[in-house]
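Reopening this one. Same input as before:
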Amino acid sequence: MKKIYILCAVLGMLSCTSETYESGDGDLSYLRADFVEMHTAATKLVDSFVTDEDDAFELQQYADVAWAERPDTLYRALAYYNKVGTQAQPHSFQPVYVLRPKKAADIEGDIRHDPVGLESTWLSANGKYINMGLLMKVGQAEGDALSQVVGVTLDSETADAMALTFIHDQGGVPEYYTQRLYVSIPVSDTMRGKTITLRIQTYGGPVVKTLQL
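Same output, byte for byte:
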């Protein structure tokens, strides 16, 4: 499970700031947005990334990514960049949380299913990830920093099917604003070829998504 601290200093990498620009051939006119696996050459320095369409890019100049704290590590991210020929000119990388399914018995503490907003669920083009676009309710509370917890439980598994449930603990975080969050579930070898059902508790009630891997 992943603990998400609702502070602009941390989650602000997702949408606390926005860029505006005039139309025309400016620096952001041809900006692309792709889900990627990015690699760090050193702490906070990204040297390459591979998109979900398996397009690979080596960066001539390392990108400084403050949240990528471990060297020689693959991170899941949403990359904004300009593609110039076979080169990529990165603009920013936003974190995508990777959730690995666990049996409920293997998870410490209470398991909650507090509601979230669900924008979309899809299988990546290369079949490596199940992606979810979520709308989280957030707010700033006085005193200690509060956090939300997200994860995925493995509820049942047969030779041709697997049932998963998205778990979410609001953690007492005030629900003042809406903030977008992307998460990815890695597709393991045991999941391939199966029908996957994913249950999500939304503000409109439970939703079940079905994907054929």
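So the earlier flakiness isn't reproducible anymore. For the record, The first strand starts at residue 2 and ends at 5.
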